[in-house]
Amino acid sequence: MMWVFLVLFLLFSCAPRTGDTGSLKWQYNYDLGMSSYMAKNYSEAIANFYKASQLAPNEPKVWNALGLAYTEVQEYQKAETAYLKALEIDKKYTEAKMNLGILYFKQERYERSIEALKQVLEDEAFPQKHMAFYYLGKVYQSMGNHREYVNNLRKATAYNPMFIDAQIELAQAYEKEEDYSQARSVYISLINNGINNPNLDLSMARVEYKLGSYTTAKSYIKKVLEDKQASSQLKSQAYDLLSEVLIAEQARTILLRTDRPAQREKPQESIPKPQEGIPKPQENIPALQPAPKEMPLQETQTRQRVYRIQVGAFSSVQLARSWKERLERELNLKDISVVEASGVFRVFYGSFNTREDAQKELSRLKGMNIYGFIVQE
Q1: What's the pTM?
Q2: Domain containing 46 — which CATH number?
Q3: Which of 1, 13, 204, 343 is spaced 20 to 30 Å from 130 by Cα?
């Protein structure tokens, strides 16, 4: 009989007390709620967090979690009540205070949001300060205060350089201010930290173009066009940017040419020498651009063509015609046409039945310092 009493003693002595059982139950519901929340099953998350709040009404993290779940389903009034309950239990619960500030931002209660987020920033022990700065910046942006928006984005990225969303927003804000050097610095920082994707490459191409670094811009555009992960929409944007780069590049070349003193101009020759510096409107551009679907100008009577060589792209028909006339006059080239599409005037040369024939002619043109790429109609 002694062993029976020993077993009963062990069972009762090891059984959890009533308080321990309650603790285990609310923690169990809380953990289930967090699992559902992470899986974006907010209905189950709310149910489990609510059960946990009834079992442990004085546990602030349960009320905070319930507020997060209510926020996701846009039950903002219930979310506010939950956050305030958490802060009523623990006035120093900074995480709940930050979530309340974010909630006020979503409700467009900007003054209340600023007040809450600034209180968060006063807690030196809070490890998520970068999030508070970020949302404080978003509040100022919504209020139309661009300066404070940028200042807080700077602080958010300073506190956490790997805060990607804030870094990208900061670079875009610099672009809006036309501070392209600062924008480039942010993008380069992301690349140096191992963040590489076609969207970032296109952004780099855009700022390099704005800074006048056309060769570098084209190299980033090429990366986008060759990236298998890039969407068709992103590649379309890359082609549009490529046209802008080519137009700017050629305009600068022509401007430099026309700005030369008249006495330095040499007499026209049938084929100019390489050192005369005939513009290279399409140098080092990959033959990746699809044939444009354009209507030719009335001055040009086009024939049915398979492969053609694009030797220029301009923002005005006058510049395109000037380039066409120069090629005809100085290089004695024939079969040149000007084609317009979406406000871009492209200059095409030749008509070839095969890509090989077009490639041979393109190589010959390069020997005369004329650069372009092949398109197929």
Answers
A1: 0.61
A2: 1.25.40.10
A3: 204
Looking at the 3D structure of the chain, how many domains does it have?
Answer: 2
| Amino acid at site 168 | I
3-class secondary-structure state, position 347: strand
- On whether the CB atoms of residues 240 and 202 are closer than 8 A, the answer is no
141-151 in b/e form (b: 16+ CB < 10 A) is beeeeeebbbe
pLDDT digits (tens, 9 = 90+) for 289-319: 444 444 444 444 444 546 888 877 665 788 7
> Domain range holding 145?
22-247
Tell whether 129 is covered by a domain. yes
Report CA torsion sign: 230, 236, 242, 244.
negative
**DSSP-derived 3-state class of residue 128:** coil
Half-sphere exposure of 285 (CA within 13 A, CB side): 32
- The three-state secondary structure class of 93 is coil
| The three-state (H, E, C) secondary structure of 250-315, written as one string | HHHHHHHHHCCCHHHCCCCCCCCCHHHCCCCCCCCCCCCCCCCCCEECCCCCCCCCCEEEEEEEEC
